[in-house]
Amino acid sequence: MRHGIQHADVATAELETALRDGPFHVALRAAIAARGLPLQRVQHHLSRYGVKVGVTSLSYWQQGARRPQRPESLRAVRALEEILQLPDESLVRLLAQAEERPGPAHPAARSYRSRVEASGALEKLLAELGASLDSGLHMLGRHERVRIGSRRELSGRDSQHIVRAHKDGIDRYVAVHHGDPGCAPEHMTVHALENCRTGRVRWHHDTGVLLAELLFDTRLRIGDTCLFRYGVEDGTAGASREYVRDFGSPGGQYALEVQFAKDALPVRCHRFTQHSVAAPRSGRQELTLSGRHRSVHMVEPRVRSGIVGIGWDWE
To answer: This protein's superkingdom (predicted)?
Structure first.
């Protein structure tokens, strides 16, 4: 009996140290060990919270082979804090501390911490709107035009979407805009431009996340398609150096165009891909700025899960 008590004391001490000092995977492994739960039981508890995470993913997380990064995975981390009887935000805090240090290949990249914090803000804003990450719509095509102003700022963007409903009764789409660091989402405006109208708008100042409902004229049935277009006027931050789009699941075609003001032309531009926010960037390809239209673009014929974007250098 004494041996069991000593073992529990050691496990508790290790957990307290790991929660204080990290890193995330060590704290997660210590918490699971301290509660004496096999990964299959942890997975079962998560499913009761409406969160689906595989045993393999949980194993990778506690080994440090991978880190949670998708919104669904970050929901799982918060659920794990309850399941494992940990203080609120204890694992989330450690996950945020595990941010990558941007290297010379992408000096303006958003940090891992900012992505984690933005994901948490996004989840709360969606809850305020009574929405979820599953919009009931499959993306068939998306074309985004990003405008860079004369102060080198992200002036705004226009987006055109082609979607197909995979649920009955869908009558809206929740658009998400991530402003550059230092932006003021409360001063941004959203314009419904085609086949939709603007509904409720919510934002989170610290992370620069803005959400806007785009309401359709009719309720879509399963299989119905819809083409709509909207714009976001930003211009509230400093010099912009990249635009990225994170895709949580594979989908249709994606085209991204970045257009620069005539008195704010970059010295070089490139496209890139990234498997996840915790992974290194790859697929770098130089892009040539068109002379007359002062723009560059990229096209993904069929989107895969992960991150794609265009970056540029001012000097």
So the answer is: Bacteria
149 and 292 housed in the same domain: yes
CB of 20 closer than 8 Å to CB of 93:
no
Tokens of 27: 């704290």
Q: What is the pLDDT of residues 12-68, one digit of tens each?
A: 777 888 888 878 888 888 888 888 888 888 988 888 888 888 888 888 788 777 777
CA–CA distance, 74 with 67 (Å, rounded to integer): 10
Instruction: Give 262's Cβ-side CA count (13 Å radius).
Output: 3
- CATH code for position 301: 2.60.40.3140
Query: Which residues are within 8 A (CB) of 276 and not within 5 positions of it... i.e. 6 or more apart?
Result: 69, 306, 307
Interatomic CA distance for residues 300 and 257, integer angstroms? 12
CATH value at residue 76: 1.10.260
Do 299 and 227 belong together in one domain? yes
Query: What are the structure tokens assigned to 129, written together?
Result: 């709107």
**Which token pair is 44?**
């079962």
Distance CA(2)–CA(182), nearest Å, equals 56
Q: What's the token pair of residue 21?
A: 């000092």
Say how far apart CA 115 and CA 248 lie, in whole Å: 13
pTM of the model: 0.67
Q: Tell me whether strands 137-148 and 253-260 are parallel, antiparallel or unpaired.
A: parallel
Question: Chain centroid to CA 311: how far?
Answer: 17
Report the first-to-last Cα separation within the chain, whole angstroms.
Answer: 68
How many structural domains comprise the chain? 2
